[in-house]
Amino acid sequence: MSWRLEALLTAAAIAVAIAFFASVPHWPKEWTTRPLPNTDASAALAVSSVLLGPSVLAGLGPVPDLNLSLPPEMAVVAARRGINGETGLIPTAASVTTFRLLATGDLVSVASVPGADVVRASATPPDPVYRVHGQFAIASIERGTTQLRWTENGVTYQIASRTLDAKALSEVADKLR
């Protein structure tokens, strides 16, 4: 194909695209509020008869953050890996992040725990009671690692350290955002 024909086709495609986008504001308003066609799929999904645009999402709450982090003046990221063990650039939604606390040099690991049970206060709460962001938290020690687990916004999180106790972990966890 000659270069003249290629240039002509390119110019024509650009002109059509510009004309389309320039004409959108001048379309009749009733086109955008027209009811959806009645199909079996739309009836099965109970789709609204009118497209509401962004206001459909206005009633939904915010999406929970799966990766909490500490302020940079408090800690630096020492390592990050995916829940499935991948390292480097994390393609997964959630990751296990290990922070080094600047004040003490201690390492703490923070992660959301997918599929974990919701942490709720029991009828006879243990002594002492730990709280993270105002939510009840359960402390445990497993193989020399102190763990603190809590649930907020429907997501269960865990913070763990080999050197900090549960009280210190709850203080660090309160600074997670």
Question: Layout of helices and strands, plus pairs?
Answer:
Elements: H1 3-23, H2 40-44, E1 75-82, E2 95-101, E3 107-112, E4 130-132, E5 135-142, E6 145-152, E7 155-161, H3 166-173
Antiparallel strand pairs: 1-2, 2-3, 3-7, 4-5, 5-6, 6-7
**Overall radius of gyration:** 26 Å
Extended strand count: 7
**Largest beta sheet: what is the strand line-up?**
1-2-3-7-6-5-4
Report the span from N to C terminus: 58 Å
So what's the oligomer here?
Answer: single chain
- Detail the poorly predicted runs: none
Count of separate structural domains = 2
Count of alpha/pi helices: 3
Share in β-strands: 25-35%
Give average pLDDT, whole number.
Answer: 82
User: Which series of helices and strands comes N to C?
Assistant: HHEEEEEEEH
What do these coordinates show?
The protein is an alpha+beta fold and 177 residues long. It has two domains: 3-57, no CATH class; 75-173. Helices cover 19% and strands 27% of the residues. A seven-stranded antiparallel beta sheet has the order 1-2-3-7-6-5-4, covered by helices on one side. The longest helix has 21 residues, at 3-23. The model has no long low-confidence stretch (mean pLDDT 82).
